[in-house]
Amino acid sequence: MFDMKKAYISQAVYQAAYDIDTRIKYKQELADDAFGSFIQSQSHQTNLPDDFDPAQPRLLFQNSHKQLLISQTLCQLNLGFEPGHKSLREQLEIVFTNAREIHKRIQKFRKDTNLNESALIITLSLPSAESREALGEYLFSHSIKFPKFGEIASTSVKVGYLHPSNNFLNVEADVYEKRGGMVEGGQTIDLMSLPIVEQGVALKVDVNSRPKAQVEGYKNSGPDEIISIITQYFPEELLKLLNIGDEL
Fold it and tell me: Which of 26, 116, 112 is nearest to 73 (CA)?
């Protein structure tokens, strides 16, 4: 059902949180100094008012492969890969390298401000030629112990763990599809009318230090511990956990 040679990291996200800073958008020059050479672009203002949702980005950096969002409460780096772009192991090393580098730059940007929790979230896409219905049935039969009351219309699995290291480890599995095609300029887009260009099962692993950050005196030492935890499970143990490994 799945060909591991086609598996790829469709998205990786690294976050580092801090206490709310309502003046963050006025620190654009500091942001450009800290992140400009890394993202290879200048920042842009999102022009949101100071009293709007603090989690929404105030500053944005973007290039073809990286996006950095800066809100009043955190910095978030988004990375993406295309199918067939480097091996899965190479992609994973790129994610880890970028997580370490962006954390250093976030520390530079925030100067003496202590960072709160960090998180690294990686989505592994497993493309398949099977139908959405067959993929949902497969995921249901391999990972859920529910009675089958009828035809499976959709399946999604999410499990959260408190890791022995006192970090949260969250695992998700879902059926995904990508749609695409040519759209004429100015035309209203009905996404569901576009052809499906890829579908399969997406496995997401999210490791974050939120439990540690609740302990008095917590100091954020960077992403190395989170990376070590992900390395324990990604991808082999993650696939076994969801009973997909035997099909690869």
Answer: 116
DSSP 68-82: EEE-SSEEEEEE---
| Block residue for tokens 């842009």 | 44
How many domains does the chain fold into?
1
The rounded Cα 238 to chain-centroid distance in angstroms is 16
Q: Please indicate, yes or no, if residue 185 is contained in any of the structural domains.
A: no
Buried b (16+ CB within 10 A) or exposed e, 136-173: bbbbbebbeeeeeeeebeebebeeeeeeeeebbbebbb
Query: At which residue do the structure tokens 């089958």 appear?
Result: 148
> Helical H runs in 40-194?
88-110, 132-143
Query: Cα separation of 99 and 102, whole Å?
Result: 5
* Residue 172 belongs to a domain: yes
State which amino acid sits at residue 31. A
Query: pLDDT value at position 32?
Result: 97
Domain residue limits at 210: 4-12+115-180+193-241
CA–CA distance from 46 to each of 26, 110, 184, 190 (Å)?
12, 20, 27, 27
102-141, pLDDT tens digit by residue? 999 999 999 978 899 999 999 999 999 999 999 999 898 8
Q: Per-residue confidence at 28, pLDDT binned at 50, 70, 90?
A: very high
